[in-house]
Amino acid sequence: MPLLLRVNQLRNIIWSSCPVMLQMQHAGLPSGKLLGPRSYEKRHFTTRVQTLETAVMDTTTTGLGSCNSGIQQLKLQRTSEHGQCATILVFDIETTGFLDKSNNNRIVELALRDLSGGKNSTFETLINPEMDIPTFVEKVHKISTKMVRRHDIPRFGDVLPLLLAFVQSRQTPGKPVIWVAHRAKAFDAPFLAREFDRCSVQMPTDWLFVDSVCLARKLPNMPKSSDGKKHLVNLEALRKHYGIRMEGSAHRAMQDVTTLCQVFQKITFDLNLSYEGLMNDATKSSAFSKVS
After folding, report:
1. Assigned domain for 246 exists
2. Is the pLDDT confidence value at 48 over 50?
3. Does any domain span residue 54?
4. Structural domain boundaries, residue 231
5. Which residue among 129, 181, 251, 263 has the highest number of C-beta atoms inside a 10 angstrom radius?
6. What is the pLDDT of residue 23?
């Protein structure tokens, strides 16, 4: 279970773990400044968010955690001696609705896990979307308006400096960061980019995004839909295909991340993917962001 911390404590831990302060320029913010603990609005957030309807402690809160014991460290082969050793982050988001032209929907939960494992290899948080969550969406991910529209739940702008610092603390200097999500191209990456755009922040240029759906479509012998025309490549179908046990509720960010970590490891093995092969399937962050 992730270590539950107050956001201001989490902030200090992340910065103390970084060898240098994260420069604003790296985040696409005005140069000449440092993104330090005092560089954004001081607000105290509780990280133990209680589900009001059930009075059960919600474990998906802002915090850092160690790698799940059931998830092995991912080791991809290199096709050359100087092959890239990128940081691979598996991530998932939950939102107030679909990605559409209205640009109104917001992220309500974010979770990610570094597949290199080790201490503080996960990051997860609920996010205040500053809007209500429709009932039909709440039924999917079980995150209600009452859970997130609270003064002690951080907005995306509050989470952003922590997210950037966390990623940098996991990144190998001079190497890219590969973000992996199921439907990354069509949903997760564009949604994340929109939140960056709202904050007038450019996503780092060394961030790359890989869609595990695109990789899954290359797999042989995948089960087909009832009409026999399409291969089933949704996360649940892949989980069952690989015989992966699911614990907890689907469609919560960290649970889906945990499932995808195991699915992604199976996919890369079946496709015999190398770092170079994964990089070839990646999309640059600039393809999703409007801020430059």
Report:
1. yes
2. no
3. no
4. 86-286
5. 181
6. 35
Tell me the one-letter amino acid at 94: E
Using one digit for the tens of pLDDT, what is the confidence trace for 221-231? 887 777 776 77
pLDDT computed for residue 101 by the predictor? 79
- Distance (Å, whole) CA 68 – CA 239: 17
Is residue 262 situated within a structural domain?
yes
Count of structural domains, the chain: 1
Alpha-carbon torsion, ordered 269, 66, 125, 281, to 10 deg: -20
- What amino acid positions are annotated as catalytic residues? 251
In the predicted model, what is the mean pLDDT of the chain?
Answer: 78
Whether this prediction's pTM lies above 0.70 is answered by yes
Ramachandran region, residue 32 (left: φ > 0; alpha: ψ -120 to 50; beta: rest) = left
Decide if 57 is inside a domain: no
Instruction: For residue range 9-36, list pLDDT tens digits in order.
Output: 555 555 455 433 333 333 344 333 333 3
Burial class (CB in 10 A: 0-12, 13-18, 19+), 228: exposed
Spatial neighbors of 78 by CB under 8 A, at least 6 apart, are 84, 85, 274, 275, 276
Give per-residue pLDDT as tens, 136-145.
999 999 999 9
Residue 275 is predicted with a pLDDT of: 86
**pLDDT(79) > 60:** no
